[in-house]
Write a structure and sequence with these properties.
11 helices; 313 residues; Alpha-Beta Plaits; alpha+beta
Protein backbone atom coordinates (compact mmCIF):
# COMPACT_ATOMS: atom_id res chain seq x y z
CA UNK A 1 0.00 0.00 0.00
CA UNK A 2 2.73 2.47 1.02
CA UNK A 3 4.88 1.62 -2.01
CA UNK A 4 2.03 2.19 -4.44
CA UNK A 5 1.12 5.47 -2.72
CA UNK A 6 4.64 6.90 -2.64
CA UNK A 7 5.90 5.54 -5.96
CA UNK A 8 2.65 6.25 -7.79
CA UNK A 9 2.52 2.67 -9.09
CA UNK A 10 2.49 -0.85 -7.72
CA UNK A 11 5.89 -2.52 -8.24
CA UNK A 12 5.68 -4.96 -11.14
CA UNK A 13 9.25 -5.28 -12.44
CA UNK A 14 12.46 -6.98 -11.37
CA UNK A 15 15.84 -5.30 -11.68
CA UNK A 16 16.53 -7.31 -14.82
CA UNK A 17 13.23 -6.16 -16.33
CA UNK A 18 14.03 -2.51 -15.57
CA UNK A 19 17.48 -2.57 -17.17
CA UNK A 20 16.15 -4.34 -20.27
CA UNK A 21 13.22 -1.94 -20.65
CA UNK A 22 15.53 1.08 -20.27
CA UNK A 23 17.97 -0.34 -22.81
CA UNK A 24 20.97 -0.10 -20.50
CA UNK A 25 23.40 -2.78 -19.25
CA UNK A 26 22.41 -4.42 -15.98
CA UNK A 27 25.77 -3.32 -14.52
CA UNK A 28 24.92 0.33 -15.27
CA UNK A 29 21.64 0.03 -13.36
CA UNK A 30 23.26 -1.79 -10.46
CA UNK A 31 25.99 0.85 -10.12
CA UNK A 32 23.43 3.65 -10.16
CA UNK A 33 21.26 2.05 -7.46
CA UNK A 34 24.27 1.30 -5.27
CA UNK A 35 25.52 4.88 -5.56
CA UNK A 36 22.05 6.15 -4.65
CA UNK A 37 22.07 3.93 -1.58
CA UNK A 38 18.91 1.99 -2.48
CA UNK A 39 18.25 -1.28 -0.63
CA UNK A 40 19.51 -4.32 -2.53
CA UNK A 41 16.82 -6.16 -4.48
CA UNK A 42 17.14 -9.84 -5.33
CA UNK A 43 17.44 -11.03 -8.92
CA UNK A 44 13.78 -12.09 -9.07
CA UNK A 45 12.33 -9.63 -6.56
CA UNK A 46 9.48 -7.52 -7.92
CA UNK A 47 10.43 -4.14 -6.46
CA UNK A 48 10.49 -1.68 -9.38
CA UNK A 49 8.08 0.35 -11.48
CA UNK A 50 8.02 2.18 -14.81
CA UNK A 51 9.40 5.22 -12.95
CA UNK A 52 12.64 3.29 -12.40
CA UNK A 53 12.79 2.55 -16.12
CA UNK A 54 12.37 6.25 -16.95
CA UNK A 55 15.02 7.24 -14.37
CA UNK A 56 17.54 4.90 -15.99
CA UNK A 57 16.73 6.28 -19.45
CA UNK A 58 17.21 9.87 -18.25
CA UNK A 59 20.49 9.02 -16.56
CA UNK A 60 21.72 7.27 -19.70
CA UNK A 61 20.75 10.36 -21.73
CA UNK A 62 22.80 12.60 -19.40
CA UNK A 63 25.75 10.26 -19.88
CA UNK A 64 25.41 10.36 -23.66
CA UNK A 65 25.18 14.17 -23.57
CA UNK A 66 28.52 14.26 -21.78
CA UNK A 67 27.05 15.81 -18.62
CA UNK A 68 27.67 12.74 -16.47
CA UNK A 69 31.05 11.19 -17.13
CA UNK A 70 31.85 8.11 -15.05
CA UNK A 71 33.67 10.14 -12.38
CA UNK A 72 31.05 12.87 -12.27
CA UNK A 73 28.22 10.38 -12.14
CA UNK A 74 29.61 8.59 -9.11
CA UNK A 75 30.19 11.80 -7.15
CA UNK A 76 26.90 13.46 -8.06
CA UNK A 77 24.73 10.38 -7.59
CA UNK A 78 26.26 9.62 -4.18
CA UNK A 79 25.54 13.20 -3.13
CA UNK A 80 21.93 12.84 -4.28
CA UNK A 81 21.59 9.55 -2.45
CA UNK A 82 22.98 10.83 0.87
CA UNK A 83 20.99 14.07 0.77
CA UNK A 84 17.66 12.52 -0.13
CA UNK A 85 18.11 9.59 2.26
CA UNK A 86 18.49 11.99 5.19
CA UNK A 87 15.60 14.13 3.98
CA UNK A 88 13.35 11.07 3.58
CA UNK A 89 14.20 9.84 7.09
CA UNK A 90 13.32 13.21 8.60
CA UNK A 91 10.10 13.57 6.59
CA UNK A 92 8.93 10.07 7.47
CA UNK A 93 9.63 10.68 11.17
CA UNK A 94 7.70 13.94 11.00
CA UNK A 95 4.65 12.34 9.38
CA UNK A 96 4.73 9.46 11.88
CA UNK A 97 4.85 11.94 14.77
CA UNK A 98 1.86 13.85 13.39
CA UNK A 99 -0.04 10.58 12.89
CA UNK A 100 0.59 9.58 16.52
CA UNK A 101 -0.59 12.98 17.74
CA UNK A 102 -3.95 12.44 16.03
CA UNK A 103 -4.66 9.56 18.38
CA UNK A 104 -6.37 7.29 15.85
CA UNK A 105 -5.08 4.35 13.89
CA UNK A 106 -1.45 5.30 13.31
CA UNK A 107 -1.02 3.34 10.07
CA UNK A 108 -4.25 4.62 8.53
CA UNK A 109 -3.46 8.20 9.54
CA UNK A 110 0.08 7.89 8.16
CA UNK A 111 -1.20 6.64 4.81
CA UNK A 112 -3.84 9.39 4.66
CA UNK A 113 -1.30 12.06 5.55
CA UNK A 114 1.14 10.77 2.93
CA UNK A 115 -1.49 11.05 0.21
CA UNK A 116 -2.23 14.65 1.18
CA UNK A 117 1.29 15.82 1.95
CA UNK A 118 3.49 14.15 -0.69
CA UNK A 119 2.30 16.24 -3.68
CA UNK A 120 2.84 19.44 -1.68
CA UNK A 121 6.29 18.39 -0.46
CA UNK A 122 7.32 17.28 -3.95
CA UNK A 123 6.33 20.65 -5.42
CA UNK A 124 8.07 22.58 -2.64
CA UNK A 125 11.27 20.54 -3.02
CA UNK A 126 11.33 21.36 -6.72
CA UNK A 127 10.79 25.05 -5.90
CA UNK A 128 13.56 25.11 -3.28
CA UNK A 129 15.96 23.33 -5.64
CA UNK A 130 15.30 25.83 -8.45
CA UNK A 131 15.82 28.82 -6.15
CA UNK A 132 19.14 27.40 -4.94
CA UNK A 133 20.06 26.64 -8.55
CA UNK A 134 19.60 30.32 -9.42
CA UNK A 135 21.77 31.38 -6.47
CA UNK A 136 24.48 28.90 -7.38
CA UNK A 137 24.47 30.02 -11.02
CA UNK A 138 24.84 33.65 -10.01
CA UNK A 139 27.81 32.82 -7.78
CA UNK A 140 29.47 30.83 -10.55
CA UNK A 141 29.02 33.62 -13.08
CA UNK A 142 30.85 36.12 -10.87
CA UNK A 143 34.17 34.26 -10.97
CA UNK A 144 36.40 33.27 -13.87
CA UNK A 145 37.07 29.80 -12.49
CA UNK A 146 33.87 28.30 -11.08
CA UNK A 147 35.78 25.64 -9.15
CA UNK A 148 38.17 27.93 -7.24
CA UNK A 149 37.38 31.26 -5.60
CA UNK A 150 38.51 33.37 -2.66
CA UNK A 151 36.05 33.15 0.24
CA UNK A 152 35.89 33.87 3.94
CA UNK A 153 35.35 30.54 5.67
CA UNK A 154 33.91 30.27 9.16
CA UNK A 155 33.29 27.58 11.76
CA UNK A 156 31.17 28.03 14.88
CA UNK A 157 31.30 25.25 17.51
CA UNK A 158 29.19 24.71 20.61
CA UNK A 159 31.25 24.86 23.81
CA UNK A 160 30.63 21.92 26.17
CA UNK A 161 28.40 20.03 23.74
CA UNK A 162 29.42 16.54 24.89
CA UNK A 163 28.92 17.29 28.58
CA UNK A 164 25.50 18.84 28.09
CA UNK A 165 24.31 16.14 25.69
CA UNK A 166 24.84 13.58 28.47
CA UNK A 167 22.66 15.53 30.91
CA UNK A 168 19.54 16.01 28.80
CA UNK A 169 17.02 13.72 27.12
CA UNK A 170 17.16 12.80 23.45
CA UNK A 171 14.22 15.11 22.66
CA UNK A 172 15.80 17.99 24.56
CA UNK A 173 19.06 17.41 22.68
CA UNK A 174 17.28 17.44 19.31
CA UNK A 175 15.36 20.63 20.22
CA UNK A 176 18.54 22.30 21.47
CA UNK A 177 20.56 21.46 18.35
CA UNK A 178 17.70 22.46 16.02
CA UNK A 179 17.38 25.83 17.74
CA UNK A 180 21.14 26.32 17.44
CA UNK A 181 21.08 25.46 13.73
CA UNK A 182 18.04 27.67 13.05
CA UNK A 183 19.64 30.65 14.79
CA UNK A 184 22.96 30.17 13.00
CA UNK A 185 21.23 29.83 9.65
CA UNK A 186 19.20 33.01 10.19
CA UNK A 187 22.22 35.07 11.22
CA UNK A 188 24.40 33.78 8.38
CA UNK A 189 21.75 34.42 5.74
CA UNK A 190 20.88 37.87 7.13
CA UNK A 191 24.52 38.90 6.69
CA UNK A 192 24.62 37.53 3.13
CA UNK A 193 26.45 34.27 3.71
CA UNK A 194 25.79 30.63 2.94
CA UNK A 195 25.64 27.67 5.31
CA UNK A 196 27.67 24.84 3.80
CA UNK A 197 26.83 22.18 6.35
CA UNK A 198 25.88 21.49 9.95
CA UNK A 199 28.26 19.36 11.99
CA UNK A 200 26.11 18.27 14.93
CA UNK A 201 27.82 20.58 17.40
CA UNK A 202 28.82 23.22 14.87
CA UNK A 203 28.13 25.03 11.64
CA UNK A 204 30.36 25.66 8.62
CA UNK A 205 29.63 28.76 6.50
CA UNK A 206 31.17 30.97 3.82
CA UNK A 207 31.03 34.63 2.79
CA UNK A 208 32.36 36.52 -0.17
CA UNK A 209 33.97 39.09 2.13
CA UNK A 210 35.68 38.94 5.51
CA UNK A 211 33.73 41.82 7.06
CA UNK A 212 30.38 40.04 6.81
CA UNK A 213 31.87 36.78 8.09
CA UNK A 214 33.39 38.64 11.05
CA UNK A 215 30.14 40.37 11.97
CA UNK A 216 28.32 37.04 11.79
CA UNK A 217 30.81 35.26 14.02
CA UNK A 218 30.83 38.07 16.59
CA UNK A 219 27.02 38.17 16.68
CA UNK A 220 26.78 34.42 17.24
CA UNK A 221 29.50 34.50 19.90
CA UNK A 222 27.65 37.26 21.76
CA UNK A 223 24.34 35.38 21.77
CA UNK A 224 25.68 32.81 24.21
CA UNK A 225 26.31 35.56 26.78
CA UNK A 226 22.67 36.67 26.68
CA UNK A 227 21.11 35.18 29.83
CA UNK A 228 17.63 35.39 28.32
CA UNK A 229 18.67 33.38 25.28
CA UNK A 230 18.81 29.58 25.05
CA UNK A 231 21.62 29.88 22.52
CA UNK A 232 24.71 28.02 23.75
CA UNK A 233 28.16 29.45 24.32
CA UNK A 234 30.13 29.07 21.10
CA UNK A 235 33.57 29.76 19.73
CA UNK A 236 34.42 30.67 16.15
CA UNK A 237 37.29 30.64 13.67
CA UNK A 238 37.54 32.53 10.37
CA UNK A 239 40.09 32.34 7.55
CA UNK A 240 40.20 33.96 4.14
CA UNK A 241 41.69 32.59 0.93
CA UNK A 242 41.19 30.42 -2.12
CA UNK A 243 38.90 27.40 -1.78
CA UNK A 244 37.74 24.67 -4.13
CA UNK A 245 34.00 24.34 -4.74
CA UNK A 246 32.68 20.87 -5.46
CA UNK A 247 29.13 19.48 -5.31
CA UNK A 248 27.99 22.16 -2.89
CA UNK A 249 30.91 21.61 -0.52
CA UNK A 250 34.06 23.67 0.03
CA UNK A 251 37.60 22.29 0.33
CA UNK A 252 41.18 23.47 0.69
CA UNK A 253 43.75 24.75 3.20
CA UNK A 254 41.60 27.82 3.95
CA UNK A 255 38.87 25.51 5.28
CA UNK A 256 41.37 23.52 7.33
CA UNK A 257 42.84 26.67 8.87
CA UNK A 258 39.41 27.99 9.87
CA UNK A 259 38.68 24.69 11.62
CA UNK A 260 42.02 24.79 13.45
CA UNK A 261 41.50 28.40 14.51
CA UNK A 262 38.20 27.44 16.10
CA UNK A 263 40.06 25.15 18.50
CA UNK A 264 42.18 28.11 19.63
CA UNK A 265 39.18 30.29 20.49
CA UNK A 266 37.89 30.62 24.02
CA UNK A 267 34.14 30.46 24.77
CA UNK A 268 32.26 33.43 23.28
CA UNK A 269 35.29 34.51 21.25
CA UNK A 270 36.38 34.65 17.61
CA UNK A 271 39.85 33.88 16.23
CA UNK A 272 40.88 34.80 12.67
CA UNK A 273 43.87 34.21 10.39
CA UNK A 274 46.39 36.70 9.05
CA UNK A 275 44.57 37.23 5.73
CA UNK A 276 41.34 38.04 7.56
CA UNK A 277 43.16 40.40 9.92
CA UNK A 278 44.68 42.25 6.98
CA UNK A 279 41.26 42.59 5.31
CA UNK A 280 39.76 44.08 8.49
CA UNK A 281 42.66 46.43 9.22
CA UNK A 282 40.94 49.51 7.77
CA UNK A 283 37.36 48.48 8.57
CA UNK A 284 35.55 50.32 11.37
CA UNK A 285 33.89 48.37 14.14
CA UNK A 286 36.57 45.76 14.82
CA UNK A 287 39.50 45.27 17.15
CA UNK A 288 42.17 42.80 16.08
CA UNK A 289 44.76 41.54 18.57
CA UNK A 290 47.75 39.47 17.52
CA UNK A 291 48.14 36.18 19.41
CA UNK A 292 51.20 34.02 19.99
CA UNK A 293 52.04 31.67 17.16
CA UNK A 294 50.67 28.22 17.91
CA UNK A 295 51.26 24.81 16.39
CA UNK A 296 48.06 22.95 15.54
CA UNK A 297 47.37 19.77 13.60
CA UNK A 298 48.82 20.20 10.11
CA UNK A 299 50.23 23.69 10.74
CA UNK A 300 53.39 24.65 12.56
CA UNK A 301 53.43 28.05 14.31
CA UNK A 302 50.09 29.22 12.92
CA UNK A 303 49.64 32.97 13.32
CA UNK A 304 46.22 33.77 14.77
CA UNK A 305 44.46 36.98 15.77
CA UNK A 306 41.74 37.53 18.37
CA UNK A 307 38.77 39.45 16.95
CA UNK A 308 36.53 41.71 19.03
CA UNK A 309 33.87 44.26 18.31
CA UNK A 310 35.26 47.78 18.70
CA UNK A 311 34.21 49.52 21.90
CA UNK A 312 32.26 52.76 21.72
CA UNK A 313 34.38 55.49 23.33
Amino acid sequence: MVEALVLGQTPSLTRVDVAAAAGVPAEFAEDLWHQLGFPHAGQDEVAFTEADVEALRMTDELVRLGVLSEDRRAALVRTWGRSYARLAEWQTSLLAEVARERGGDEVEDLVALSGQVLPLVEALQDYVWRRHLVSAARRMLTVADASAVALAVGFVDIVGYTARSKRISDKELVDWVEEFEDTCSNVVVEHGGRVIKYLGDGVFFTFENVESAARTALELAALGDDKESQFPHVRAGISYGDVVLRLGDVFGPTVNIAARLTTLARPSSVVIDQSSAAALEEVDGFQVEKMRRTSVKGYSRLQAFRLRAARDD
